Amino acid sequence: MSGSSSPNTGEKKPKKIDGDYQEPEYISITITDPVRIDEYISYKVTTSTTFPEYKEREFIVRRRYKEFVTLREHLKQKLAEKPKAIKFGELYPLPGNNLSSLFGQGRFEADFIEERRKGLEQFLNSVANHNYFRFVPFLHRFLQEKDATFL
Questions:
Q1: b or e along 106-144 (b: 16 or more beta carbons within 10 Å of the residue's beta carbon)?
Q2: Are 95 and 115 contacting, i.e. CB atoms less than 8 angstroms apart?
Q3: Residue whose C-alpha is closest to residue 57's, from 46, 45, 48, 65
Q4: CATH architecture of the domain with range 27-144
Q5: Where is the PX domain (predicted)?
Q6: Residue 60: CB partners within 8 Å, gap ≥ 6?
Q7: How big is the chain by its Cα radius of gyration, in Å?
Q8: Is 70:151 a contact under the CB 8 Å cutoff?
Q9: CB of 144 closer than 8 Å to CB of 55
Q10: Which of 30, 51, 43, 63 shows the shortest CA–CA distance to 145?
Q11: What's the mean pLDDT in 3-20?
Q12: What pLDDT digit, counting tens, does each position of 57-81 carry?
């Protein structure tokens, strides 16, 4: 039958679980538990995935906003090296910095922290599910390596 794909096309198949069921590939990231440490907020990043690029199915790290900035800058650089990857979609923005919150005590207010947490979660899920960025080793390290610092 023309137009149908052959089962031997070399495509990577999802893992078989039971009978004919094949577990779909997915990645889901949640950001919770913001904690103030000196003059910054640390966020708990929990990842659950079946993507084969990762060592485990679930892992937890803590990251601060500056580390997200470093990750985004690295991904921007990777995109500049391979501009055709833009066809998969642009790099999602980080939540913005409110100047009064950035330099005053406002950055430690519950509303600001919650808005930032939501934005960071959207950012991470967008890049982890992006058809190009999902394969960048720097992202894998960012999500998996507990003791690594990305400043």
A1: ebeeeebbeebbebbbbbbbbbbbbebbbebeebbebbb
A2: yes
A3: 48
A4: 2-Layer Sandwich (3.30)
A5: 21-150
A6: 44, 45, 46, 47, 146
A7: 18
A8: yes
A9: yes
A10: 63
A11: 48
A12: 999 999 999 999 999 999 999 988 9
The answer to whether 144 and 73 have CB atoms below 8 angstroms apart is no
Q: Measuring CA to CA, how many Å separate 122 from each of 39, 71, 129?
A: 24, 14, 11
Is the confidence at residue 46, as pLDDT, over 90?
yes
One-letter amino acid for residue 23 of the chain: E
Q: CB–CB of 27/128 below 8 Å?
A: yes
Per-residue HEC secondary structure of 42-93 comes to EEEEEEEECCCCCCCCEEEEEEEHHHHHHHHHHHHHHHHHCHHHHHHCCCCC
Per the CB < 8 A criterion, the answer to whether 97 and 61 are in contact is: no
Bridge partner residues of 62 (DSSP): 44
Report the sign of the C-alpha dihedral through residues 70, 71, 75, 78, in that order.
positive
Query: What is the DSSP code (8-state) at residue 115?
Result: H
Tokens of 128: 């982890």
CB 37 within 8 A of CB 107: no
**Running DSSP on this structure, what letter comes out for residue 26?**
-
